[in-house]
Design goal:
The chain is α+β, with helices and mostly antiparallel strands.
């Protein structure tokens, strides 16, 4: 997995609307958070709804959060409906996992916060409550509801 401080590789993938998305273009508008996931991964199923909460409550100037599926579009759409996730989603499987390989992902979910300068400021595999709390500062929104019992970690 690429480490914090490393330069993020530029990636270009297809999105669910049939368009193209590139990291270098997205970074021109500001910071980006990439969330790599697989639909069969229980930890991904647990994590992505929390990321949706961050996006739903985001303040102006928050990073762009992009989900990157390691599955096909049909399976990913079913996952999104089931777990009530409407994040902008890109498809890595159709590109032979070039983005997953470029970021050297060993496990999903894998989250990367990338600054406008292209440097990775946060890199984590699996679920980490502390990392989501750190992201909440960037988004200005809370991923967790008062009273929710959230584990500190869940491996991917």
């Amino acid at each position: 997995m690429l480490a914090e401080g490393a330069c993020a590789p530029d990636i270009e993938l297809d999105d669910q609307a049939g368009g193209k998305w590139s990291l270098s273009e997205a970074l021109k508008a500001g910071a980006v958070v990439l969330a790599f996931f697989k639909i069969s991964c229980p930890t991904c199923q647990f994590t992505l709804p929390f990321l949706q909460r961050l996006v739903d409550g985001a303040v102006s100037g928050a990073p762009q959060l992009v989900a990157i599926s390691q599955d096909d579009a049909e399976g990913t759409a079913q996952f999104q409906r089931r777990f009530q996730v409407s994040l902008r989603t890109l498809y890595d499987k159709a590109h032979a996992y070039t983005a997953s390989n470029a970021f050297r992902i060993g496990h999903v979910p894998a989250l990367f916060a990338i600054g406008r300068d292209g440097r990775i400021s946060m890199a984590v595999e699996g679920f980490s409550k502390a990392h989501l709390e750190k992201l909440s500062e960037l988004f200005g929104a809370a991923p967790f509801r008062p009273g929710e019992q959230i584990p500190a970690m869940r491996p991917g």
